[in-house]
Amino acid sequence: MVKTPTHTYTPEVLADWERGKLELLRDNARRLGAEDVLQMCERELARRVPQTPRKRQTGSEHAEGDVVTGYHFVCARGRGVTESTDGRFWSGSWVVAERNVRESLKYGAHLALHETKAEPSYRQGEIVDYRRSPRDMIDKDNEGIEFLVQETGQSYDWVGAGAGEKGYQWSKRSSRGGLARKGSE
């Protein structure tokens, strides 16, 4: 005597299911001894391309030796910015790696201040110098970097994929000592 299935699962129905839901049904079928459902699930899972874990985008896609050629900061209403002389200004204190800043100066890096990441910069220019300075807020680092910037009128769109208040534009060094291509973090 042929046993009539007590379910409505068919290969066509299972083909439309997400992998996780299908795997759950397979596990339950195995546990409950529903051999026909178990076989349909296993056939469908075998038919699909194996899942490979997705690479998580961290926003730090740069290689050893790359140079930061653009620093972008969210800085509401010029907080911490002070005027200098001859069209220059100090950026306020930011936590950045000093070794990156030293290299950036050799390649004419720019700094751009933004109200939000969605808006073009409201103040920007070429970095001409820097100094270590105390942070004016409670932070794990009590010292930051303050940039001296020669102001320009050219605004910049936000660069950087991170979730924080800063974004870096990275450039690769070419074998001739210059810069080869640009990327962002």
Folded structure, characterized:
- The protein has 185 residues and is of the alpha+beta class.
- The protein has two domains: 11-47, no CATH class; 67-184, no CATH class.
- The protein is 22% helix and 31% strand.
- It has four helices and eight strands, in the order αααβββαβββββ.
- It has helices at residues 11-15, 19-32, 35-47, 98-106; strands spanning 67-74, 82-83, 88-94, 110-114, 123-134, 143-152, 166-173, 179-184.
- Strands 2-3-6-5-4-1-7-8 form an eight-stranded mixed beta sheet, with helices on one face.
- α2 (19-32) runs antiparallel to α3 (35-47).
- The longest helix is centred in the first third of the chain and has 14 residues, at 19-32.
- It is rod-shaped.
- The termini are far apart.
- Mean pLDDT is 85; it is low at 54-59.
What does the secondary structure layout of this molecule look like, with pairings?
Blueprint: H1 11-15, H2 19-32, H3 35-47, E1 67-74, E2 82-83, E3 88-94, H4 98-106, E4 110-114, E5 123-134, E6 143-152, E7 166-173, E8 179-184
Parallel strand pairs: 1-4
Antiparallel strand pairs: 1-7, 2-3, 3-6, 4-5, 5-6, 7-8
Concise overview:
The protein is α+β, with helices and mostly antiparallel strands. Helix content is 22%, strand content 31%.
| Structural Rg | 28 Å
Structural class: alpha+beta
Amount of beta strand: 25-35%
Choose one word for the global shape: rod-shaped
The description of the largest β-sheet is: 8 strands, mixed
What is the first-to-last residue Cα distance? 67 Å
For the largest sheet, list the strands in their spatial order: 2-3-6-5-4-1-7-8
Number of helices: 4
Q: Which regions contain 5 or more consecutive residues with pLDDT less than 50?
A: 54-59
Q: Count every beta strand, where a strand is a DSSP E run of 2 or more residues.
A: 8
Our count of domains comes out at: 2
